[in-house]
């Protein structure tokens, strides 16, 4: 059984104080006849004799045996271990672990913690890649991220790259996830810390795709199955990946920049949009309600970059300006956009008339080809932050509740620090 277990791929999804989501991907397991059932046992790290057994329902083999286990009634701030297998007698000897969030409110200062983040993870598959030089490389970056000991990983889109052979079939979309998740260097990161994700065009559909993509229900189903995000959807945009969560004292807002997107030059159909009215209204209300010192807004493409080029929000300048004005007029502070897509990293900064600052930290690429946008006229770029090569970033939250600090550090794929900055 050891070889089969080595092919499995547990992903630690959302982690709350009393509840955790585990996604167990078991494509190569051998199951008993007439059964596609998975068993998982977990226990408090210091109490190995008090194991709790969870048994899944049989699932459709066509979905390649991906199981979501929701572990409930857990104890805050507690370390747990878990293991799994087709039956309790064949549970893997390999043990994984997680720790629930701490109940710090009204008791202590908020804990310090670290978020790792990045976008554009291309995994080569020669049969279906474009001819010529491979587009992906240096997968060791995922182990480098683990070496920085993040408490959470936030994937900023293009986490897989659907190919032409994938776009129009469920089997093709599922294959792309399976192929990506089979990358040996990726597996440790997926189980090391909680993983949260948004998507961009390449995990939503074809390159630069918008809401007209006819198979977006299939890619939405796959995204929800292969990631362990908190519950998705908001009123008016139920079929979207939009969601939010709190990690320690910081609120995170995960946006869907594809499902409602229209062409920027569309005429006579509807007003050009990226997010859609329902999502914009929800976002502004959620930001206004938030008491978090920093409000992290994750979205696939760049928000602040002033160059109206490619898929930057400046191409939809009317909507971009409206969102900025809503943030300013509602006196919302601490807004930090985390974005990907651009195959380079840079920090943009916009100071509002009321003195508050909006940041946009773009982090890309992880393993895809890089791009040097030095010549783009982004008037809001912070000098010295452009990185046109493979990289990732960490966001370190520290300090007391009244004096919370956020420090951004950008690393190359070998872990060398490229730049750092404390955000106001």
Outline the biggest β-sheet: 6 strands, mixed
Let me know the number of strands. 19
Low-confidence parts: 1-7
CATH architectural grouping of the largest domain: 4-Layer Sandwich
Alpha-carbon distance between the two ends: 52 Å
Number of helices: 8
Arithmetic mean of pLDDT: 93
Strand order in the largest sheet: 10-9-8-17-18-19
Question: How would you describe what is shown here?
Answer:
By secondary structure, the chain is an alpha/beta fold. It has two domains: 2-99, Immunoglobulin-like (Sandwich), CATH 2.60.40.10; 113-423, Purple Acid Phosphatase, chain A, domain 2 (4-Layer Sandwich). The protein contains eight helices and 19 strands. It has helices at 2-7, 141-147, 170-181, 184-192, 201-204, 216-226, 277-289, 317-329; strands at 9-15, 20-25, 39-44, 52-55, 66-71, 79-85, 96-99, 113-118, 152-156, 195-198, 243-247, 250-254, 295-299, 335-339, 346-351, 357-362, 391-398, 405-412, 417-423. Strands 10-9-8-17-18-19 form a six-stranded mixed beta sheet, with helices on one face. A six-stranded mixed beta sheet has the order 11-12-13-14-16-15, covered by helices on one side. A hairpin with a 2-residue loop joins β11 and β12 (250-254). The relative contact order is 0.12. The model is unreliable at 1-7 (pLDDT under 50).
